[in-house]
Write a structure and sequence with these properties.
The protein has about 200 residues and is mainly α. It has two domains: about 90 residues, Winged helix-like DNA-binding domain superfamily/Winged helix DNA-binding domain (Arc Repressor Mutant, subunit A), CATH 1.10.10; about 100 residues, Methane Monooxygenase Hydroxylase, Chain G, domain 1. It has a two-stranded antiparallel ribbon. Helix 1 crosses helix 4, helix 2 crosses helix 3 and helix 6 runs antiparallel to helix 7. The longest helix has about 35 residues. The radius of gyration is 21 Å and the shape is globular.
């Protein structure tokens, strides 16, 4: 990056890049996207405009002034080649499994931005890698739960509430795994329909 900066972007900065990748955006349009609080992210003008300035200063996005009705200039942002590469690298990263809610939300953002950017093979590989991470985490959590409950029983400190919380965590993981399996099957079927893959590819 210009100036030798190699800092990692924040999750919200990556999301801003993803939104700009869908179509050119103004600061106002990005803020409006979050205005209903449906996504659980803080995206006030005091947050978004500094992000846009930082990304533009690092040549990750490009800003171009446009005249609206010849009286109100506005800045329209697009991805630079650097920004496009940074976004695609982030999209290919496999999400962590914990904390479940935060990482699941980021995974859904990634999945949304992948369409039209990554090829079906890369998307399927991402889904497979994420599924593997969920299975490993699920196995570890079950082992931990069984040991914890056994130890609690041994010392006479049984807790129905703690057991229910542990079971809720496992149910969350199972739900995510089910969705990933469904998404993989549908993407693979779509790739077959469009001719991007053939039966011999072993999807």
């Amino acid at each position: 990056m210009p100036g030798g900066s190699t800092r990692d972007l924040t999750p919200l900065e990556y999301i801003v890049l993803g939104l700009i990748s869908l179509k050119p955006q103004t600061g106002y349009s990005i803020i409006s996207f979050f205005s209903d609080d449906a996504y659980g992210w803080s995206a006030s003008p005091g947050t978004i405009y500094p992000i846009l300035k930082r990304l533009e200063n690092q040549d990750i996005i490009l800003g171009e002034l446009e005249m609206e009705h010849e009286t109100r200039p506005r800045k329209m942002y697009t991805l630079s080649k650097l920004g496009s590469d940074i976004l695609d690298d982030w999209l290919r990263e496999v999400p962590k499994t914990f904390p479940i809610y935060e990482q699941r939300e980021l995974a859904m953002w990634k999945f949304q931005f992948m369409e039209g950017r990554l090829n079906k093979r890369d998307i399927l590989q991402w889904l497979d890698n994420y599924l593997d991470a969920i299975r490993i985490s699920d196995f570890g959590r079950r082992q931990f739960q069984d040991r914890t409950l056994a130890q609690m029983n041994e010392v006479g400190q049984q807790s129905v509430h703690r057991q229910l919380i542990m079971e809720w965590t496992l149910m969350e993981l199972n739900l995510l795994r089910t969705w990933l399996e469904m998404a993989r099957a549908r993407i693979a079927a779509l790739a077959m329909q469009t001719g991007e893959f053939k039966a011999a590819d072993g999807l």
